[in-house]
Design a protein that fits this description.
This protein is an alpha/beta fold. 42% of the residues lie in helices and 14% in strands. This is Short-chain dehydrogenase.
Length: 271
């Protein structure tokens, strides 16, 4: 069993927190004593995911009421700058007075042939993955730097192994994840004077709702599993521990501007 209470009393916002990697990070943060406000689009299909998340959070709270964090949620589209601002305000008003952690996780990934990529898909991918990260991180940083005493906090951007390698059906996607990495590197420089640490998590191939269709291809899945030194496709929970590490001052207090690959060794075996 992993240690607990590493984020006791902290407050976090997590975009795209009701499914996939965001959900896994949310639940682990709660287990570590962190109060969390998750963002979701508020679409009809989100209701089922959110209901399940709320039920699991309640189960954690029931098992360890004095150490488990509390959960709240707020709908909104991260491509709208107002969403990040509202999410920060909700976290501070609900659990304040500080915002300690921001995890910019919301993203889209749809495979497509480069020669036939439609403008709408390109625009949606860039606006969600890149613009959305910028606006949410900026809103969190304003709170962490200018509206709390002392200033400080931890910001984590979900990039991807795709920020470092090419993908024939990801030409519209890989630049956005390289951009998320770049945002984390540049904000690490811009915000260091406020005691704010900014780092990127780079998942490899992870079994989420974004990859489920792609992984139905048995030949591709088997090929990937052979290329991954640890011999398996990643799970959303594989990102939860690294996200705790980067959020915890006691564990990573001198880590900023870093990129942490969580890929089972895939990147070093791409040859």
């Amino acid at each position: 069993m992993a240690p607990t209470n590493l984020l006791q009393g902290k407050t976090a916002i997590i975009t795209g927190g009701s499914t996939g990697i965001g959900r896994a990070i949310t639940l682990e943060y709660l287990r570590q004593g962190c109060n969390v406000v998750v963002n979701h689009l508020g679409l009809p299909q989100d209701a089922t995911h959110l209901s399940s998340l709320i039920a699991e959070a309640a189960s954690l709270k029931s098992a360890s009421p004095s150490t488990t964090g509390s959960l709240d949620h707020l709908p909104g589209d991260v491509t709208d700058p107002a969403t990040g601002t509202a999410l920060v305000a909700r976290a501070v008003s609900k659990f304040g007075p500080r915002l300690d952690i921001c995890v910019s996780n919301a993203g889209v990934c749809e495979f497509a042939e480069f020669l036939t990529v439609e403008q709408d898909l390109f625009t949606k991918t860039v606006r969600t993955n890149l613009d959305g990260t910028f606006y949410v991180v900026q809103a969190a940083a304003r709170q962490m730097a200018l509206s709390q005493t002392p200033p400080g906090g931890a910001i984590i951007g979900l990039s991807s192994i795709s920020a470092l390698v090419g993908g024939g059906k990801q030409v519209h996607y890989t630049p956005t994840k390289a951009g998320v990495l770049s945002i984390m590197q540049s904000t690490a420089v811009a915000l260091g004077k406020y005691g704010i640490r900014c780092n990127a998590l780079l998942p490899g191939t992870v079994r989420t709702q974004l990859s489920v269709e792609d992984l139905k291809d048995d030949a591709k899945r088997e090929y990937l599993e052979k290329r991954i030194p640890l011999g398996r496709i990643g799970l959303p929970t594989d990102l939860a521990g690294p996200a705790v590490f980067l959020a915890c001052d006691e564990l990573s207090g001198f880590v900023t501007g870093a990129q942490l690959l969580v890929d089972g060794g895939l990147f070093v075996n791409l040859q």
